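Lab notebook, bench 4. Still working through the backlog of constructs that have no structural model yet. Next entry is a single chain of 237 residues. Request: give me the structure tokens for it.
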Amino acid sequence: MVLVAFALRRRLDASRWLLAMAATLVNVIQAVSDWGGAGARWTHWTAAAWIGRPVFVVAGITFTPAMLADTLLLMAILYAVWRYQAEQSRKQNVLDEEFRNAQELQHVLVPEELPAVPGYRLSSAYRPAQVVGGDFFQILPVEGGTLAVVGDVSGKGLKAAMTVALIVGAVRTLAETTGDPAKLLEGLNRRLHGRLKGGFATCLAVRVEAEGECVAASAGHLAPLLNGEEVTLPGAL
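Model written out:
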């Protein structure tokens, strides 16, 4: 009764407190049987005899109170396992749906078709380590040329993908007002400061011009490659 009252008050999973009650009942019956049998020679208690008394017979199998309690315990275990598996399956389905939504969002954020840039040939490959990742890139037309922005968010999975959505939105907004890589990264840093909950992001912005000149700014990102060799850039946060 105490277990039932506690479970109902706390709104616990029915399968768990049913399993606890069944296990308690089996142990109580066993204890009463042991105590009653041990004291039968000195008392007239009949509890032990009652526990061993047949209740009914099914297909030649005699069911006693102890057997009924054991059967109840077995059913409670099976029910608890079934409920646990069903709950885990439901949670996994919800998680899979969230990942699918994040993956669809990332497909929108990461360009599948690159814009045509006069004088240049562009190609890209994007393979996240998990279902969704924290890497991003954008190719945007800006005043004076074309801006290429690549970056990486700390961590993986759904949280990183949501941060990428925030960063890409900020990058596209900033690119409408400036084509200067340094100013773009400064503006991006202001928008992200205090919003990554202990995480961080690195980013590299390069503006390529029609004549072949380029201007680069790095925020702690890996150095870009030119003809297979790393381009030396000053240290940056």
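Notes after review: Residues 55 and 68 are 9 Å apart (CA to CA). The chain has six helices and eight strands. Flag for follow-up if needed.
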